[in-house]
């Protein structure tokens, strides 16, 4: 009774505070009770101070009862408020900010809240009428006043709290969650475009009113907020300057020095850094009597100089985080004075909000003689190696040399099978941008499922419905087939820079030159074809032959297992030819998934047969390991274990790959399909029916369950050690950060569904099957059409390791020549002239203990000894273009070993 009187007094005080004229909310705001409750709430605002009084039992389970003060927002947005106080009507009375799809009690919502007992909490309901989820702290974590915020980006909702309104913390998931353990932040909620945002209060005691005070209430419509972000780099740098920096030229300037034979080239990237789609007008200051300036659209090659130096060039409309690349060329004119400098300013300005802009600066200096641009370069210390891209290679363990990294790494791409439309998407795992989408057959009915990635970064996909396997080359690694010999690679690209591949950005079957081979595995019609050449019929049967298991061995050949014909095919990577066939029908083995371990053993899951097949390719010896349950996905860790998921049997098993024996079988997640392992030894499974990913310890102890959307099928680890999951029941793939067990990136692949649970990033083939890494550098001569001489290096290759170097050239870094395998100290024979030479050194080891090493690598453009026009110096015995003590020592040793008469 005393509590009820207190709340009624509070209501009187509110009305007194407001007065008749001020007992209102700001324009556009409304308030109402949500759900059926015994006492009506109230709300007022005056001079930025808000008082909200609400009853209600809770915002919990399948429906809510509370008081809501709200307005609408279209698209992305955020709401922030400081909760000054909240009456202690119950330990779980709540006051905070909410985004809600509707005003029905069972609506989808996200709620960042505080309690009088000092809890912080993030609550959400992803399905109307469904069970809510929450992650909350223990009591006593905060004291009023305290700040809360929710941000919506697409279907991603994130709850934050702060003590000062400046330093924000996302509500962590390592605290109490309900229903255990599905609470998570951020949450993926498929809400309508228009939503309700506002302040929510519940007393947690129906019929009792709770008074909460708020201030600093702010709603930001992020869908209308834009910010261009210009970035700049020179043409021999890997990293842009100015990412997420606006109009600070101290951090957005790059410089070069040129002579009369050179052109200074700068790469300019324009990115839409906010949430609203927008176009941007790009201008630059232009040249003068001493300098000429040219600007090109990098992707199309179109000359946009007159627009950029005039009224401005308008970019395509860019979605959030969309970007477009430009090339800026600055050339000294004849008779330019020595020491002349051109400071070229490039500015991007929003079309919809001209007050939003960003500027970068290119500083070019002329010198009569620039030392040694054509003299090549020696890469030998850490700073030199930093000029290139290191993937699985490092110089920290032993400085000033390159060796394989101990961490598991791969290239920054995930290849996602789009099962419903007969395509595969290549997605950048750093940004979530879809870079390409490739057809895997002449129709949309191929049913591509398992994808695997070879040691060169190419994708191999099994079309289970048509009975084929397709090789898709990695464009970024120069893997394509220029079938029309025009020097231009026709392939799927993100032409409008929106991060999605749609419409004409997907090329027809047989037109994409990154789709290299089609291998037919239909009995009696087996063969390898260039896409479009196969004129036979396809099976149109997902089970016969039904290629499913697919994996790469340490020789970079591809093994494909067929479900119905019970055969494994070994396919040569280079040309797609079938090298051999292993019949496993005597074991009644219906291949479903495959991996190759560090010993070269192929492991294959057998669907409902209750065992895993073990195939030794050296002698085709086959055996089985009985696990006693349904066998679906397979995953390898770095400690010699194979993990096996159990689908509807809800089991998880571990096998010792060295002994071929079963370690244990434990209760797993229901309908677990894909399996992946992170470097810490933890095991991750995609659980289709509960719509989760489960994290297990290496001993099979459940650590965390994470909600990920509709019908997840596969999980895989990316280049940064994060875990990706692909969904079959919706268009989404998600990235999970193992440090927080939170989804930190969600990507919608428009119009697709994804049934895949194999090595979609290449982490298994490049780390567990064999250890491989690469260092790639672009040498810039500063002059177009430079001739090439030799590439040579000093290295150490222990037994069981290998080192390979290959090169290709270009004048513009858009179109590259074919790769040429470089021989140490031997002249390049097939590499055309060009301004740039890209050098890629590939390291490989059969074990984790030994690594090949590069101490230094030298690029020598022509004229150089050893090419077709310049002979080696006399007495240059080891052909390194110099005569030194090494040559004298070799000659002395040969003379001492000589037994011929002329040696007397």
SSE blueprint and pairings:
Blueprint: H1 2-22, E1 30-34, E2 42-46, E3 49-54, E4 58-60, E5 63-74, E6 77-86, E7 94-100, E8 109-114, E9 120-125, E10 133-136, E11 146-153, E12 156-162, E13 169-170, E14 176-178, E15 187-188, E16 194-202, E17 210-220, E18 228-234, E19 253-258, E20 264-272, E21 280-284, E22 291-297, H2 305-308, E23 313-314, E24 323-332, E25 341-350, E26 357-366, E27 377-379, H3 382-385, E28 389-391, E29 393-394, E30 403-404, E31 413-418, E32 423-428, E33 434-439, E34 448-453, E35 459-463, E36 468-472, E37 515-520, E38 527-529, E39 547-552, E40 558-562, E41 567-571, E42 578-583, E43 593-596, E44 602-605, E45 611-616, E46 621-626, E47 634-636, E48 641-645, E49 651-656, E50 661-667, E51 672-677, E52 683-687, E53 692-696, E54 702-707, E55 712-717, E56 723-727, E57 732-737, E58 742-748, H4 763-769, E59 771-780, E60 788-796, E61 801-810, E62 820-821, E63 836-845, E64 853-861, H5 885-897
Parallel strand pairs: 19-26
Antiparallel strand pairs: 1-5, 2-3, 3-17, 4-5, 5-16, 6-11, 6-17, 7-8, 7-16, 8-9, 9-10, 10-14, 11-12, 12-13, 12-15, 18-20, 20-24, 21-23, 21-25, 22-24, 25-26, 27-64, 28-59, 29-30, 31-32, 32-33, 34-35, 35-36, 36-37, 37-38, 39-40, 40-41, 41-42, 43-44, 44-45, 45-46, 47-48, 48-49, 49-50, 51-52, ...
């Amino acid at each position: 009774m005393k509590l009820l009187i207190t709340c009624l007094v509070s209501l009187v005080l509110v009305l007194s505070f407001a007065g008749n004229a001020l007992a209102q909310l700001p324009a556009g705001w409304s308030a109402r009770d949500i759900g059926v409750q015994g006492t009506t709430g109230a709300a007022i605002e005056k001079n930025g101070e808000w008082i909200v009084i609400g009853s209600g039992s809770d915002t919990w389970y399948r429906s809510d009862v509370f008081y809501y003060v709200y307005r609408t927002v279209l698209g992305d947005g955020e709401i922030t408020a400081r909760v000054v106080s909240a009456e202690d009507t119950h330990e779980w009375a709540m006051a905070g900010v909410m985004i809600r799809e509707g005003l029905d009690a069972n609506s989808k919502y996200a709620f960042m809240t505080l309690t009088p007992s000092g809890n912080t909490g993030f609550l959400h309901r992803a399905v109307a009428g469904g069970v809510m989820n929450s992650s909350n702290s223990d009591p006593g974590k905060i004291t009023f006043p305290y700040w809360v915020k929710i941000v919506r980006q697409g279907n991603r909702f994130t709850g934050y709290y702060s003590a000062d309104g400046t330093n924000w913390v996302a509500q962590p998931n390592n605290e109490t969650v309900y229903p255990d353990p599905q609470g998570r932040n951020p949450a993926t909620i498929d809400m309508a475009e228009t939503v309700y945002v506002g302040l929510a209060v519940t007393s947690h005691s129906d019929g009792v009113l709770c008074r909460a005070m708020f201030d600093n209430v702010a709603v930001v419509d992020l869908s209308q907020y834009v910010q261009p972000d210009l970035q700049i780099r020179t043409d021999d740098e890997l990293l842009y300057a100015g990412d997420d920096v606006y109009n600070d030229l101290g951090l957005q300037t790059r410089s070069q020095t040129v002579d009369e034979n050179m052109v200074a080239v700068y790469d300019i990237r324009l990115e839409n850094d906010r949430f609203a789609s927008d176009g941007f007008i790009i201008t630059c200051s232009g040249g003068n009597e001493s300098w000429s300036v040219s600007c090109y659209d990098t992707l199309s090659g179109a000359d946009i100089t007159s627009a950029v130096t005039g009224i401005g060039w308008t970019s395509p409309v860019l979605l959030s985080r969309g970007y477009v690349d430009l090339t800026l060329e600055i050339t000294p004119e004849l008779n330019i004075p020595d020491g002349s400098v051109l400071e070229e300013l490039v500015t991007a300005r929003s079309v919809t909000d001209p007050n939003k802009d960003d500027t970068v600066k290119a500083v070019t200096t002329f010198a009569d003689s620039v030392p040694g641009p054509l003299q090549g370069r020696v890469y030998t210390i850490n700073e030199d190696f930093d000029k290139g891209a290191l993937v699985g290679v490092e110089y920290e363990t032993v400085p000033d040399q390159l060796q394989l990294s101990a961490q598991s790494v791969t290239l920054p791409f995930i290849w996602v099978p789009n099962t419903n439309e007969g395509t595969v998407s290549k997605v950048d795992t750093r940004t979530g941008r879809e870079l390409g989408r490739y057809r895997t057959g002449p129709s949309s009915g191929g049913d591509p499922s398992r994808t695997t990635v070879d040691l060169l970064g190419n994708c191999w996909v099994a079309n289970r419905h048509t009975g084929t396997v397709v090789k898709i080359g990695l464009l970024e690694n120069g893997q394509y087939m220029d079938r029309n010999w025009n020097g231009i690679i026709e392939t799927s690209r993100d032409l409008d820079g929106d991060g999605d591949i749609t419409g004409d950005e997907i090329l027809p079957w047989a037109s994409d030159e990154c789709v290299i081979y089609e291998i037919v595995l239909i009995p009696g019609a087996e063969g390898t074809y260039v896409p479009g050449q196969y004129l036979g019929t396809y099976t149109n049967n997902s089970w016969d032959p039904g290629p499913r298991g697919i994996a790469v061995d340490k020789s970079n050949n591809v093994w494909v297992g067929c479900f119905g014909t019970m055969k494994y095919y070994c396919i040569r990577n280079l040309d797609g030819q079938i090298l051999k066939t292993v019949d496993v029908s005597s074991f009644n083995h219906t291949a479903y998934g495959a991996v190759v371990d560090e010993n070269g053993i192929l492991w294959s899951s057998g669907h409902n047969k209750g065992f895993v097949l073990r195939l030794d390719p050296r002698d085709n010896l086959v055996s089985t390991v009985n696990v006693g349950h349904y066998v679906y996905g397979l995953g390898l860790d770095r400690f010699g274990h194979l993990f096996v998921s159990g689908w509807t049997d809800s089991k998880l098993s571990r096998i010792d790959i060295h002994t071929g024996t079963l370690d244990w079988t434990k209760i797993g997640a229901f309908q677990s399909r894909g399996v992946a392992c992170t470097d810490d030894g933890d095991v991750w499974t995609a659980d289709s029916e509960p719509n989760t990913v489960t994290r297990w310890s290496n001993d099979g102890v459940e650590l965390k369950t994470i909600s990920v959307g509709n019908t997840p099928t596969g999980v895989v680890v990316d280049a940064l050690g994060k875990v990706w999951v692909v969904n079959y029941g919706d268009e989404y793939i998600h990235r999970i950060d193992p440090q927080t067990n939170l989804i930190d990136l969600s990507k919608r692949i428009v119009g697709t569904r994804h049934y895949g649970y194999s090595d979609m990033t290449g982490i298994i083939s490049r780390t567990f099957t064999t250890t491989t890494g690469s260092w790639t550098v672009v040498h810039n001569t500063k002059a177009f059409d430079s001739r090439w001489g030799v590439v040579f290096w000093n290295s150490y290759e222990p037994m069981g390791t290998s080192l390979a170097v290959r090169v290709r050239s270009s004048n513009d870094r858009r179109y590259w020549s074919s790769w040429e395998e470089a021989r140490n100290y031997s002249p390049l024979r097939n590499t055309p002239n060009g301004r740039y030479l890209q050098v890629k050194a590939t390291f490989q080891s059969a074990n984790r203990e030994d690594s090949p090493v590069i101490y230094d690598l030298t690029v020598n453009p022509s004229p150089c000894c050893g090419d077709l026009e310049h002979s080696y110096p006399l007495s240059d015995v080891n052909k390194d273009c110099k005569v030194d003590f090494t040559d004298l020592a070799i000659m002395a040793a040969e003379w001492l070993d000589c037994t011929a008469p002329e040696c007397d």
